[in-house]
Write a structure and sequence with these properties.
Blueprint (H helix, E strand, L loop, with lengths): L20 H7 L3 H13 L3 E2 L9 H14 L2 E6 L2 E6 L1 H7 L3 H16 L3
Antiparallel strand pairs: 1-3, 2-3
Helix pairs in contact: 1-3
Organism: Streptomyces dysideae
Protein name: ArsR family transcriptional regulator
Pfam families: HTH_20
């Protein structure tokens, strides 16, 4: 039986000390997941899942968010009926200084080079 303080809508996230570099790199190796992270980094705030207009099915979108959450890249929390997503920048910067900024910069340069956004 679960504790009454834990909602059935709470989503599991790795603790900061459980986040692994290979998991983060795997999560960010997919173009759709990198796109999600770039959008979250650009707004420095939480965005709902419905905000993202990805050219994949809803089930695939759900999979991408789960990979990002389980790797420790994002935090997901329910606010009412919306599932809100936030970048775990403080945790990632604390564990892997400069990594997120370097990856986001490289992704932005690639987008310019390939003529996409």
């Amino acid at each position: 039986m679960t504790s009454p303080a834990v909602s059935s809508r709470d989503l599991p996230h790795p603790a900061r000390e459980e986040i692994r570099l290979e998991g983060v790199l795997h999560a960010l190796s997919d173009p759709m997941r990198l796109r999600i992270v770039r959008e979250l980094a650009a707004v420095s705030d939480e965005l709902s899942c419905s905000h993202f207009d990805l050219p994949v099915t809803k089930s695939t979108t759900t999979h991408h968010f789960r990979v990002l959450r389980e790797s420790g890249v994002i935090r997901q929390i329910y606010r009412g009926t919306a599932k809100m997503n936030g970048l775990r920048r403080d945790d990632l910067d604390g564990l892997f200084p400069g990594l997120l900024d370097a990856l986001l910069d490289a992704a932005a340069r690639q987008a310019v080079r390939l003529g996409s956004t």
